[in-house]
Amino acid sequence: MKLLHRIASFVSWHRRAVAAVLAGLCVAGVVSVVQSPPPGEPVLVAARPLPVGHTISAGDVTLTEAPPRLVTPGTLRDPDAVVGSTTAIALEAGQVLTRSTMLSSDPSRDGRALVPIAVQDPALRSLLEPGTTVSLLVALGERPEVVTDSARVAKLPSQEGGGLSLPSGSGMVVVEVPSEVAGEVAALGQSGQLVIVLGAL
Asked: Which CDD domains match (predicted)?
């Protein structure tokens, strides 16, 4: 009983110091929790620098971990799903792969379709490269009408890879467009009625 009385007396006389020590321990615990990094999530990154229009092989990508806050619904995680796809932009080594950085090897899975269109002007074709975003317009009335402002160049004449080739000098360019306008783009584009504007309107 005397021991308990002495402990009680000590705590009573030094309650401020004891409270400060306990508060310090709590703060230390909170800081420890805050500073502990959350577990990473697996993501695909470029294993080496990749140029625009490059057809992805298994050795071009690798899995690594990224903080969850950097992972978006468009972040790619399955190496097998990107093999055969084409880069829409130039990628640095270690850059995270997302849907927007790739031209899908199977666009139909994302509601897109590949359509060849005629681009007879060599000067205009020289401005295009795989991954370039373009708007497609048709001038049937007084003012041009936008068919789609989210088309992307997928393949140029004589470009290798991807299972779809165009003869050099054919004047045809393959574009990736929303599936719902693919028929209209094909009909207008293959008859040379489409106007191409670089970028999204």
From this structure: SAF_CpaB_FlgA_like (cd11614)
